[in-house]
Amino acid sequence: MPRPTPVPLWSGPPSCACSARPPAPWPPPSASGRSWPSASHWPRGAPSTLLNLVAGTRRSFDAARRTAAQDLAPDFSPFQFVRTNEAGLSKLIGWLLDPAGSHGQGGRFLEAFVNWLGTSWTPADCAGASVRWEVPTHRLEAWNRRIDVLVTSGGKAIAIENKPWAADQPSQVASYLQHLEAGHPQSHSLLYLSGNGSEPGEESIANDAQGAARAAGRLYIKGYADLLSWLRDCRGRCRAERVRNFLDEFCHFIEKQFLGVRDVTERTELIEQISGSPETLRPALMLIHAGDALKMHLLRQLHQQLDQKARANGWTCAAYLEKSWPRYEIRYVPDADIRFVLEASSLRLEDVYFGVKYDRRNAVGAPALYTKLSGVMTGLFGKGRQNEAWPWQAAVSEDSGSLPVATNWRTGERPWLMIQSGQLAETVIAAAQKVHGALISAQLLPAPADQP
Question: pTM of the predicted model, to two decimals?
Answer without folding.
Answer: 0.63
